[in-house]
Amino acid sequence: MTARLIDGISIAARVRSEVTVGVSKLLKDSGITPGLATVLVGDNVASETYVRAKRKACAEVGIESFGHVLSSSATQSEVVDLIRDLNVDSQVHGILVQLPLPDDINEEEVLALISIEKDVDGFHPVNIGKLGMKGREPLFVPCTPDGCMRLLQESGAEFPGANAVVLGRSNIVGLPAAMLLLKRNATLTVCHSGTRDLPEVCRQADILIAAVGRPEMVKGDWIKPGAFVIDVGINNKWVSHTADREFLCVSSGETFIAHHQDLSENGGRKRVGYIDKDSGDVYSRDHLPEGIDVEGLVKLFRKNRLVGDVDFDEVKEVAGHITPVPGGVGPMTIAQLLSNTLRSAQALADK
Ligand code: NDP
């Protein structure tokens, strides 16, 4: 059996066109243009890329975006002051603080300060708390897990009573995904790095959401025949050989910087070097082992292969429905952000 593909690109396109229609109706009916403020602190290259993509997507659907960039030396009180200003800015209906924040900024305080009416990323503790509570509804739900639910729904998954397994319990994906499944009356198991016998737990799943950041970890024999499999992972993977070693190179969640994983018998997992995808510059060259073909590696890196947390080729032979990587969950995250920003502006118009 070969699973049916869950096409995130076309489902996300549908969400975006719904948003486009909603934005022009809102403008016509109440003269309001939805506005999203993005807050970027520091110079994390991947974060800059994500924020640029989000602002471009806003422009495409008619949402105005306001980009705020603070340097890596910004203080907690500068970030806090900015959020306070945005909370009372009437042109701003959604506030997106790009994570991760630099180490010396207290993320918990910053996220809790965002007005819950403008918390379009859904990370405010009140929104997350309501997500986990029976009989309560959050104003906003985190975009990636919400996108996973839409993909499942559109592909015909039935939630009540289904055995749902979530791999990963991060605040941004695993945990809210689990709470969403529970809200839809699935019977839930959440796995993490301490879970025993993952394959056996996964084999019980009618619905499996994988969000671990481990390239192709979920194998075909972990899957219940006919299951719905949602692969959140975005990992770069490529393999390089030296005379006596093989290096599997992975980069999880970081678009431009990668680390090499030494797979030799005693090599273990260690960072041995970094390559800038754009420039091809190799940093910490001293840590690269003797004899490694750096130029060859750079070439491989440039045509790197994105893989998920699921071994697609194996799992598609067993599952009933499966998301590809790329083209599955990824496109849904920004689409849900646009949708949340529109909803926030509509709520203001309805007041
Ligand atoms: P985190 O690193 O924050 O969390 C990973 C989770 O997986 C943790 O709960 C961890 O357990 C668990 N885990 C790690 N290794 C194992 C293992 N060997 N066995 C069982 N559990 C394990 O990652 P994120 O949730 O932020 O992201 C997960 C993946 O999703 C990444 O590949 C990321 O790039 C991708 N992603 C994709 C998005 C999209 O738009 N498509 C958006 C956000 C993320 P523990 O808690 O015990 O440490």
Instruction: Look at the structure and name the CATH superfamily of the domain at 26-138 and 332-350.
Output: Leucine Dehydrogenase, chain A, domain 1
Radius of gyration from the alpha-carbon trace, in angstroms: 21 Å
Structural class comes to: alpha/beta
Largest sheet: 6 strands, parallel
Helical run tally: 11
Tell me the helix content. 25-40%
Q: Kindly, what is the distance between the CA atoms of the first and last residues, rounded to a whole number of angstroms? A: 52 Å
User: How would you write the strand order of the largest sheet?
Assistant: 1-15-8-7-5-6
CATH class of the domain at 26-138 and 332-350: Alpha Beta
What fraction of residues sit in β-strands?
A: 15-25%
Q: Do you know the CATH architecture of the domain at 26-138 and 332-350?
A: 3-Layer(aba) Sandwich
The residue-averaged pLDDT reads 87
Order of helices and strands: EHEHEHEHHHEHEHEEEEEEEHEHEH
- Give every kind of bound small molecule, once each: NADPH dihydro-nicotinamide-adenine-dinucleotide phosphate
CATH fold label of the domain at 26-138 and 332-350: Rossmann fold
Uncertain residue segments: 252-259, 267-272
**Strand tally:** 15
- Described by the principal axes of the CA atoms, the overall outline is globular
